[in-house]
UniProtKB/TrEMBL annotation:
This is Putative ATP-dependent endonuclease of OLD family. Residues 16-59, 213-347 form the Endonuclease GajA/Old nuclease/RecF-like AAA domain. One of its GO terms (molecular function) is endonuclease activity. Pfam families: AAA_15, OLD-like_TOPRIM. PANTHER family: ATP/GTP PHOSPHATASE (PTHR43581), ATP_GTP PHOSPHATASE (PTHR43581:SF4).
Amino acid sequence: MAKTPVAAGDEIPLGKVRKLSVRNFRAIGPNTVEVDLDTIVVLVGPNNAGKSSILRAYEVAMGEGSAAGKLSEQDFPNGSIDEANPPTIELETEVVGDPPAKKWIIEVDGRKVVRERWQWKGPGKGERQGWNVELGDWDTSKPWGFAGVANARRPQPHAVQAFDSPEKQAAQIDQIVLSLIEERAKAVPAESGDGLEFDRLSEAIRALQTKVLASAQADIEDIEKQLTEMLAGVFAKHAVKFDPAIAELEQFKLFAGNAMRVGPSDGYMSPVSLQGSGARRTLLWSVLRIVSERDQNGTGRPHLLLIDEPELCLHPSAVREACRVLYDLADKAGWQVMVTTHHPAFIDLARDNETIVRVERNEAGEVQGTTLFKPTTAQLSTDDKQNLKLLNIWDPYVAEFFFCPRVVVVEGDTEFSAFRLIVEELRALGDGSPIPQALLRDVVIVRARGKATIVSLCKILNHFGTGYSVLHDLDSEFIDVKCKETGGTKQQKNGAWTTNANILAAVQTAPDPTRINLVCSEPDFEQAYLGYTSSSEKPATAVRALQQAGSGRDAVIALLYALLDHAQPLPHGAARTSDRLSANDLQPDGAPASEIVA
């Protein structure tokens, strides 16, 4: 845990935010939305569902004692003030070392946790309370007392909103870098040693400013170099230049302010405010990381980066780079990241440090949050993580299933191509489609690229609390292999058959296995519905066959309908996997780990 000095000789170790709970705030109504914070939390869900309200909630709570902690009438649900249901924000923060009084400490999983609540009876400032363990109730007094003291015990928020103005983003970037340089520059000792050089004659101040600027030049160049290197991963052949201007004498400041410029290393460099949105955002993330890395005293305050839709205005390659930057930032000690996104690239299933929460409105229009994935509860094996890592490399969009309510997992490219074609064609038919449009509207076809990976995906989908469907090839129970002793062939148990049992076992661990539709094609997709043996050009051959009217196309449509609506009958060639496996097949996992095929 990082530490922050609050007074000479008084260093207080700091923990991280453990949980954020919000109700009656902006888009969020009376049903409490809880977010368990990991090192990085990814909030997914439809537009206007309340994701940005969650980010804003922490920023408002940490703004206690300043204008940032005051609410306007527009911050109340529907712009209506209801004193019986006030906006409420709750935080649970881990503390170590020197905690507040014992009455504020809750023991959770061997850690000391302090619980605080903010409420607003009307526009303006709110009231903070602490949970008193001895009373078992909220107390009008509060942990750590004054807001300034209490805020220093929690991670510092850095909010990057989706549509900040160029000027605001530029000011954020410039001020962070300027503060870092000034902090270093002020450490330059005065020649007289009496610490009063800033109060001497204006000529001496000008001389000192010039000396300080020269002394800080090495740090300025170092920061320029680091920012240029970070920017190069996204914007090739661009450089960053920072020119601290000498302040006017009457200001008695070391530097006048903002002068960061960006542009081609051998061309014109313009102010940050004139850069594109993607460049400004990338610079801001890079600056925040540098601030963390350059803490001079080793007692830096923990940080919480709150970033709204980081994919905005970024080129596809820049999206991947931004994702890497955010995950790397989250890996650093003292940093947490909470991000809202509509882009599957920002979900990396191979990471051990992320929690994924879906925020959406239910049928009654109420905002609710559901934790879809957390590594500590998903119980992914080493093989699972390796499968997901490889799958994520081959298909960065595989995590799209976190964004859709209706999921169909298929084994390979043929099924994926066939279903995507059918879905698009049936959507175009409107009400004339044999499958209702309501089922086609929000479906996502997930390509597992191998049976072993289906097992890994099922373990994740089981945590959604909703139904899903899986289609895989049954394959043959035995295969012919060459016998070294006789030179002939002999039959051997097919490893793919064992994986069938592993898929079934994974499905049966779901909270309600009856909501999951596990179907197999006998023996494979091509032979079961299209009437031919698979070839090296399986997807292309299948698509050509489906573009022609006939029994094959009808069978695939019927199969898709049955996968989307579990009450529909399966076509000939399809079967429930549980009906095709014997009790002897349902043994502990023994499938080969690396079965992903490109």
